Fold this protein.
Amino acid sequence: MNESIVQTPLLEARNVKKYFPIKRGVFSRTVGYVRAVVDVSLEIRRGETLGLVGESGCGKSTLGRVLLMLQHPTAGQVRFEGRDLLGLRKRELRAMRREMQIIFQDPFGSLDPRFTIGDIVGEPLIVHRAVSGRAGQTMDERVVELLELVGLDPARRYRYPHEFSGGQRQRVSIARSIALNPKFIVADEPVSALDVSVQSQVINLLSDLQARLGLTYLFIAHGLNVVRHISDRVGVMYLGKLVEVASTDALFSAPLHPYTAALLSAIPVPDPHRRRNGITLKGDVPSPSNPPSGCRFRTRCLFAQPRCADEEPLLKTIASGGSGREVACHFPLS
Amino acid sequence: MFSYILRRLLVDVIPAIAVVAVVAFTLIHLTPGDPASVALGEEARPEQVAALRAQLGLNDSLPVQFGHWASRIAHLDLGQSIFRHDSVFEGITSSLPWTLELTLLALTFGVVFGVSAGIAAALSKGGLLDKIVMGIAMLGISMPSFYLALLMSFAIGVKLGWLPTGGSIPFAEDPLGNLRSMIMPALVLSLIEGAFISRVTRSSMLDIKGLDFVRTARAKGAAENRVVLVHMLRNAMVPIVSSVAVVASLLMGGAIIVETIFGIPGMGQLVIHAVQNRDYPVLQGVVLTVAGIYIMINLAADVLCAMVDHRIRFN
């Protein structure tokens, strides 16, 4: 990444909100909202990988889907290459799917069991009437090329998803997602459902493809260790809010938000003799339908002060170590 | 697939037919009354009845009578009707086409209306369309077919005069007239079945609707029609096909009532006359034929399911 080149970000989100109504009773009255994503602003630069981490239910997958308009945001703005995605009509949005794709978490449920993997990988080419790539290429040739690209034997393209292992199915998902030569891919916990040994293979495949095809990733995961390897920058989410964004090195060497520090100290260390004096979080994540006042993390934060309950900390840019990084905390660690 | 069908025929179909033959024969002969006394009327003297019984072979023990009948069936001979002046085979071949036409028409209506209504309901779950479709389906399942048949022939046949209220115009003589007279009976017959299929389709589609691969299809940029018809419906097919098979066999029973009301000379009329007269050979022949048709429908449904879902294997 050459950071000296000033350019418009590939994707830009401003104050994105996604609330899910809670309905009760005979007349489905709305009695409240699950605030899955609250006022998230971020930008993703061309060619980079932004890692997104947080506990289960913190809204990171919802954010990923909202950025691709797979779910409509309650409020906010999403711009892709400067175009406002919320203003697009259905047809225009479908055309935009050429540029932005998603890899889902569950390699078992996300592939249609009635389709051969060749059909799954080829379907985007059909629906967009595009055999992209070199001119004169047939669809079958493109499917073979894609399967080879993700390390699957193209001779198996007439087989069905249930005949493949989890890692292989995730390779099928990846081949499908790159079929149209997109610019941006949301990888929504692509390795969480896989064995540890297969996880690293899939992550390496994603890195290779990024280098070869010039892809931009939003890489969602619930553990920092997975994200560290592939990300240029990392964002940390807690209860629907982005609490810290920094370059991977800066975040791992000196976390500013107490929650980030807690996540870091939760990474297992393969050394039984090393004493761990990290932060252990106590209690559960509060309900996203009724979040705490002020700072959402204060109920579990070791450093909480009275001010944290009264005033909500905003995500602010802090200059540290030459590069700008953002944190939402009244009392950032140093 | 061919060897699968052959194996099913040998292992399932033939034993099932044998069991049906035994049960049908026993039940029919255990019912009180006999064809001899029906034929001669109430005034007949006991000697006359006894003589006719002997002539018809009804004085032999049941196992002996069954043996005679079974050996004839083994030679593909269903026997002579006692009251009609033709063989059982001729009786069935002259009435079965009517019933088949009626049930096939009803099946077509039911599948077309049921599946499309079910899809529409599933897509607007909780909405107005869903409530209307499910309301009609509830009505269709609850309403007895004879009542609906009378209502429809009064409204459409008598008041509006759009369609004939009945009739038996052979297809070969006047295809259009035949179809016109068959539309109303087929609609009546298809309502219950269509209602059932629409409920199965709706719930099957709802199961599929929330699954991940549907979201994947949308993420690919597939148009909504393609998502619904190619991805969702194909996956929802197995329960629908199975339920169509179940309904198709129930239709034969419903056809008897509808045929009677609309005066169609099908299997229904054949059976009712045979029951009233204790025409044993006709009854046994009809039961055997209908059972054979049921079994074939089920076999066809199994083959169809395996063709729709490649994960179900032919073994």
